[in-house]
Write a structure and sequence with these properties.
alpha/beta; TIM Barrel; eight-stranded parallel β-barrel; 11 helices; 8 strands; 43% helix; globular
């Protein structure tokens, strides 16, 4: 028996890597919006983008075009990630996505590699979180699996945390795997106890997603990009979407 639709972990497809391939030529292919549409048609519950200031992959025009596309999919979520001290807030103010995920990456990082820390980041985050929420945008903070940080994330006004899952993915097959996965579960429980909802993302894949969701309670949403697009190159967008949804359903199927 599967869990109810309302408690099912949502799949948000990150289309950054589609844009990265497109940007190597000037032909406009592959299309970011077409990729998003195919994933939504196959059952994905949301689309994620992480526009960086140098537009190395997602461009400002993509953010706007996806905003227009998501208007045709009222049941789906638009999640814009980024550093609120760089360019993220401009998109939040203009597009008012369903969710803004605040990520503390530098402009030169190739990918996100750590979460916010408290109390260090609290005072500068607080007014931007408040501004986003006033615009009707849910705020998720990108966080390491640090249970002791979760109450502080709630205290600055966040609605959710996104657990940074590279550590989990890297630990699989090692002697640390069980302990690392237990830490993620503890962090999720601490977040929920503080009144936060929990998302997860980074290096999740068809190989590890089911295990993660079985162990970590109450994950509302996973954002998956690199592995998803890699799989889509072989399977196609629709088949890749369906297989990630299968992984989610397997995790949430009662024994």
């Amino acid at each position: 028996m599967t869990t109810s639709a309302s408690s099912r972990t949502a799949l948000s497809v990150n289309v950054n890597k589609v844009a990265l391939v497109r940007n190597t030529r000037h032909l406009g292919i592959p299309s970011v919006t077409r990729a998003a549409q195919l994933c939504l048609e196959a059952g994905a519950q949301g689309i994620t983008v992480h526009p960086r200031p140098d537009e190395r992959h997602i461009r400002a025009s993509d953010v706007r075009e996806l905003h227009d596309l998501l208007r045709l999919w009222p049941q789906a979520e638009y999640n814009i990630e980024g550093n609120p001290f760089h360019n993220l807030m401009d998109f939040v103010r203009e597009c008012r996505p369903h969710q803004a995920t605040f990520v503390p990456d530098s402009e030169t990082q190739s990918t996100s590699d750590h979460g916010w820390t408290f109390p260090d980041d609290a005072e500068r985050l607080r007014p931007l979180i408040a501004e986003a929420k006033k615009l009707g945008v849910r705020v998720s903070l990108f966080m390491d699996p640090a249970p002791e940080m979760m109450a502080a994330a709630k205290a600055v006004g966040a609605d959710r945390v996104e657990l940074y899952t590279e550590g989990y993915a890297a630990s699989r097959g090692t002697s640390r795997a069980d302990a690392v996965l237990a830490l993620y579960a503890e962090a999720a429980r601490a977040a929920q106890a503080a009144g936060l909802e929990v998302n997860a993302g980074h290096d999740l894949s068809r190989d590890n997603l089911t295990e993660f969701l079985r162990a970590v309670p109450g994950v509302k949403e996973v954002s998956i990009g690199h592995a998803f697009v890699s799989d889509a190159l072989e399977l196609g967008y629709a088949a890749a979407t369906r297989d990630y949804l299968r992984c989610i359903d397997e995790a949430q199927r009662a024994d």
